[in-house]
Design goal:
The chain crosses the membrane at residues 7-30. Keywords: Membrane, Transmembrane, Transmembrane helix. Pfam families: OsmC (PF02566). InterPro entries: KH_dom-like_a/b, OsmC/Ohr_fam, OsmC/Ohrsf. The chain is α+β, with helices and mostly antiparallel strands and 448 residues long. The chain has one domain. It is built from nine helices and 18 strands. It has helices at 2-29, 32-42, 133-156, 200-212, 215-221, 282-288, 343-366, 410-423, 425-431; strands at 52-53, 57-59, 81-91, 99-105, 114-118, 162-174, 182-195, 225-232, 243-246, 252-254, 257-262, 293-302, 312-317, 323-328, 372-384, 392-405, 435-442, 445-447. The strands form two sheets. Strands 1, 2, 3, 4, 5, 8, 9, 15 and 16 form a nine-stranded mixed beta sheet that branches. Strands 10-11-14-13-12-6-7-17-18 form a nine-stranded mixed beta sheet. Strand 10 (252-254) and strand 11 (257-262) form a beta hairpin. The longest helix is centred in the first third of the chain and has 28 residues, at 2-29. It starts with a helix and ends with a strand.
């Protein structure tokens, strides 16, 4: 009996040794950058005694004051819009990817804008601290088109009983851990779903004009000018800096208005075709991570609020598979205070937060030594041929600043900066012309 036990023990030792050798071979065959990132994602953050408690979405207490540039409204006469976003990391041991984004539309009297939490990944059965950056980005795209449909229908005096907009973005990394790694927005698929008793011709006319005025969609469809800047050290972290923070719930309120919640079960689009997630083992995930592909969708629906005609509810997916409900609203005049962030504020936030995620991952891959970093953006949204059938909305320029406090060499910091920009899905979606697939449905039936 004793010999049998010894034989079993020796066999187990041999098997475990073989598994260990195989695991070691696989581990050390991976690029150093990939190993560094895996270790970063698997490790917990530092724990703190005191945490600032945030809601997932809440109003900014004061107007934003970027350190790297002076926010500017170039044209005060036209209907152009200028939006500023500032993002910073939030220190929390449960998430290495928790961040805060602050956004403000400029030129609005006594308006300070909004603050959101963004997170990526959560343990099974636990909600993340907020939607992902690309969830906000996709929400802004869908809600922005929804708003243009509502406005165009009103201007054309066409009664649309119900409007729903579904947007699906397909994102991809290409050789993420390599020196020339890049992130892409490959294709944006959009479904415009309308219920109405008016003729198909009138509905199609509304849709055509709304698509011309779809600021976020035209920004993706065409190449957008991005002016990136790197700011190293200096007195840039006095006002905005990474601090310990948390959120007690996925529920957010502004006074008595519900701003955010997680749906009891995943809400799916009506007409979008989603890819079935792959059930990969650990080794398969390690092999595919460098060329990761994933989808994010957003569904924008009318709330039918007579006092706030552009208030929309947006259901958004996240990489963690749960779906969130958030709201978007628009300004009715210069003294108006929307009930929720505007569609273009979500779009601006998603762009800045996505870049912040990539700076986090790039610094982890490089094992970069730093004190702090953040992103500051201003996006100039433009309108041309206003009040005509040739009206077009688009982005004029994206002014983007990456600020880092670090004693690393200039060469290393330049590499960190350029790689972060290259990996940013949202930024590349703007920089390059994105494939746009748009479909229309009237009373449940496709129209061509």
């Amino acid at each position: 009996m004793k010999k049998k036990k010894n034989f079993i023990l020796k066999t187990l030792v041999v098997i475990l040794s073989i598994i260990g050798v195989v695991a070691a071979v696989i581990w050390f065959s991976m690029p150093t950058e990939q190993r560094n990132m895996i270790l970063f994602m698997m490790s917990k953050g530092e724990s703190y005694d005191n945490y600032q408690e945030y809601q997932v979405i809440e109003r900014n207490e004061e107007a934003l004051a970027p350190a790297s540039f002076e926010p500017s409204v170039v044209d005060t006469i036209s209907k152009n819009s200028y939006t500023v976003a500032i993002t910073e990391m939030v220190k929390n041991e449960k998430s290495r990817m928790l961040k805060k984004g602050m956004v403000q539309t400029l030129g609005i009297d006594d308006y300070t804008g909004w603050q959101v939490l963004a997170d990526e990944g959560a343990a099974e059965g636990a909600y993340p601290f907020g939607p992902s950056p690309l969830s906000y980005y996709t929400a802004g795209i869908s809600s922005n088109l929804h708003t243009q449909l509502l406005k165009t229908a009103k201007e054309k005096d066409v009664l649309l009983n119900n409007i729903k907009v579904e947007v699906l973005n397909k994102f991809r990394w290409n050789k993420m851990s390599s020196s020339n790694g890049a992130g892409f927005l490959d294709v944006t698929t959009t479904n415009i779903i309308i219920d109405s008793d008016v003729s198909q011709a009138k509905v199609q006319d509304v849709i055509n004009l709304a698509l011309q005025a779809w600021t976020a969609g035209n920004a993706l469809k065409n190449e957008t000018v991005i002016e990136p800047h790197l700011v190293i050290n200096g007195n840039n972290f006095d006002t905005y800096k990474a601090t310990p923070g948390t959120s007690a719930s996925e529920i957010s309120y502004d006074v008595d208005f519900l701003l955010t919640s997680v749906t009891s079960s995943a809400t799916l689009p009506e007409f979008l075709e989603l890819e079935v997630p792959k059930n990969e083992g650990v080794f398969e995930m390690l092999n595919t991570m460098d060329d990761l592909e994933f989808e994010i969708f957003a569904i924008s629906e009318s709330t039918n609020n007579s006092e706030r005609p552009y208030l929309t509810k947006i259901t958004i997916s996240t990489p963690s598979e749960e779906t969130w409900e958030i709201y978007a609203d628009e300004f009715s005049d210069k003294n108006d205070k929307p009930l929720a962030p505007t569609s273009l504020e979500y779009f601006t936030l998603g762009t800045a937060l996505c870049l912040t995620s990539q700076t986090t991952l790039t610094s982890a891959m490089m094992n970069l030594q730093y004190t702090d970093y953040r992103v500051e953006d201003q996006i100039d949204f433009k309108q041309e041929a206003i009040d005509s059938t040739k009206m077009v909305d688009h982005i004029g320029t994206v002014h983007s600043y990456v600020l880092v406090a670090s004693n690393e060499s200039q060469e290393r910091l330049e590499y960190f900066y350029k790689k972060s920009l290259s990996l940013c899905f949202a930024g590349e979606g703007l920089k390059s012309a994105t494939e746009m697939n748009t479909h229309f449905y009237l009373n449940g039936q496709p129209i061509h």
